[in-house]
């Protein structure tokens, strides 16, 4: 009966841990490593465990840094079940296909460069067919249903309030006369986030794996955030520019559209053309619409009053590449929501090329930006950035809107951890190295919890906790 740490120990992405109980082994998440190209190359390396011994995978949610290596797992021979929350399964159908498409395009691009150097071509990390096979292995579960997935191993999903279908995972292990309960926090959402319910309070556990993405900072007050967005829109309108919003296709895009719908008059949005320029975000929005029973009270009420989502008169959903290219002909009055959320690919790159040098244009950063990404370089206010091999002066005005994060901030993480009555042992994961250390110390000081930061390959004997 043991837990071994793999991914998201040295940083934020690539979530992956393994639990062994008797003769059975399960993976908790199997996420893609994201960031600098050198870091992403680690995705191609062999898995640091015996693939033949993995009996099942349990996913916390659909984001690629938690689910994105499941197609690779299947490609390399995994044939067991992949458990997800029902909405997560639907969202994975969208996200994994998109991830495969990006991988195939990247391999094609790299092979052109390699051919010029006389090097052998590389294979795509995985293909869309691999993504579909992985999705076919997924078995959906509702929240709050306890299910035995293997002899001696039971799980239950609780709402994490992060994106639709995001889960905290309760795991019960029984071996002989010994039973232990492990809780994996997954990614914990903010309290009072639009559309979604608050993170579920869990009162008992023997051991907790807890994320710490924003364990060293506080988000801006939500009302102040709404006012800040309104100010950016007003300034951009007065300066006759465009507004670019790099946004994660799942979660952030839907929240932005929801806020635009509920603040339509206050923000003067009738004067703008609003574009959701992401086929994946469009598809994800339809999935969000199909799960009203997962909404919070306010969104449930709004859902009952309208027949479409979102309710914006001047919203244009641009599916085709040609439609996206036409947006770049607009010099003023366009609000463009496009992926990827960290500006490391997708349609937002092309919009940045056309707008980043223009002083009247504004870029609104509304989510976490990993080290090494173009988004992080914009947040760091670099004066020049490289896009598609060319350098561009950053003259556009960059705004970091922290209050829209899908992750809980330091106080909210402490609030959630404070819900445990029996003072479990906590292992802090999924955060930058200095953040994990700081948050681990806070758990000890504020909540008197025994907390530590594991390294990849560390093993915990669960029978001894």
Describe this structure in words.
- The chain has 465 residues and is an alpha/beta fold.
- It has two domains: 2-217 and 409-464, 4-Layer Sandwich (Metallo-beta-lactamase, Chain A), CATH 3.60.15.10; 222-404, Rossmann fold.
- Helix content is 31%, strand content 22%.
- A seven-stranded mixed β-sheet has the order 6-5-4-3-2-1-22.
- A hairpin with a 2-residue loop joins β9 (167-175) and β10 (178-184).
- α4 (86-116) packs antiparallel against α5 (128-136) and α4 (86-116) runs antiparallel to α8 (279-289).
- It is globular.
Please tag this protein with its features:
Rossmann fold, seven-stranded mixed β-sheet, 2 domains, 465 residues, 14 helices, alpha/beta
User: DSSP helix count?
Assistant: 14
The biggest sheet amounts to:
7 strands, mixed
Stated plainly, the CATH topology of the largest domain is called: Metallo-beta-lactamase, Chain A
CATH architecture of the largest domain: 4-Layer Sandwich
What is the strand tally?
Answer: 22
How far is the first residue's CA from the last residue's CA? 11 Å
Query: What global shape is seen?
Result: globular
Domain count: 2
């Amino acid at each position: 009966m043991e837990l071994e740490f793999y991914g998201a120990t040295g940083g934020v992405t690539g979530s992956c841990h393994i639990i062994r109980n008797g003769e059975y082994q399960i993976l908790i998440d199997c996420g893609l490593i994201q960031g600098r190209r050198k870091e992403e190359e680690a995705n191609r390396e062999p898995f640091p465990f015996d693939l033949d011994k993995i009996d099942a995978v349990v996913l916390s949610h659909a984001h690629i840094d938690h689910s994105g290596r499941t197609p690779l797992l299947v490609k390399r021979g995994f044939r067991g079940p992949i458990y997800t929350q029902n909405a997560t399964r639907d969202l994975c159908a969208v996200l994994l296909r998109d991830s495969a498409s990006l991988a195939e395009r990247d391999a094609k691009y790299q092979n052109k460069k390699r051919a010029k150097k006389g090097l052998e071509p590389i294979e795509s990390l995985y293909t869309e067919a691999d993504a579909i096979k992985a999705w076919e292995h997924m078995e959906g579960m509702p929240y709050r249903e306890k299910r035995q997935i293997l002899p001696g191993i039971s799980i239950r999903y609780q709402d994490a309030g992060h994106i639709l279908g995001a889960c905290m995972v309760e795991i019960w292990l029984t071996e002989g006369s010994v039973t232990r309960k492990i809780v994996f926090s997954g990614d914990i959402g903010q309290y009072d986030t639009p559309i979604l319910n608050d993170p579920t309070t869990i009162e008992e556990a023997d051991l907790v794996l807890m994320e710490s993405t924003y364990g060293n900072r506080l988000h801006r007050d939500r009302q102040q955030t709404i006012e800040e967005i309104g100010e950016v829109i007003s300034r951009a309108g007065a300066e006759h520019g465009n507004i670019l919003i790099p946004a994660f296709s799942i979660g952030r895009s839907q929240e932005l559209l929801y806020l635009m719908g509920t603040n339509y008059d206050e923000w003067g949005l009738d004067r703008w053309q609003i574009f959701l320029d992401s086929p994946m975000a469009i598809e994800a929005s339809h999935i969000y619409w199909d799960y009203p029973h997962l909404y919070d009270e306010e969104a449930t009420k709004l859902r009952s009053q309208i027949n479409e989502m979102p309710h914006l008169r001047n919203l244009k959903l641009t599916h085709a590449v040609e439609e996206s290219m036409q947006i770049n002909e607009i010099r003023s009055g366009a609000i463009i929501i496009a992926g990827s959320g960290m500006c490391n690919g997708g349609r937002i790159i092309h919009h940045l090329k056309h707008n980043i040098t223009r002083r009247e244009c504004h870029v609104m950063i509304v989510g976490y930006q990993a080290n090494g990404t173009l988004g992080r370089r914009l947040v760091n206010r670099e004066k020049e950035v490289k896009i598609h091999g060319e350098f561009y002066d950053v003259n556009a005005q960059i705004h970091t809107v922290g209050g829209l994060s899908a992750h809980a901030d330091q106080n909210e993480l402490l609030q959630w951890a404070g819900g445990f009555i029996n003072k479990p042992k906590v292992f802090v994961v999924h955060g930058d190295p200095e953040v994990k250390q700081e948050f681990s110390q806070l758990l000890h000081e504020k909540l008197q919890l025994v907390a530590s930061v594991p390294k990849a390959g560390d093993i915990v004997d669960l029978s001894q906790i």
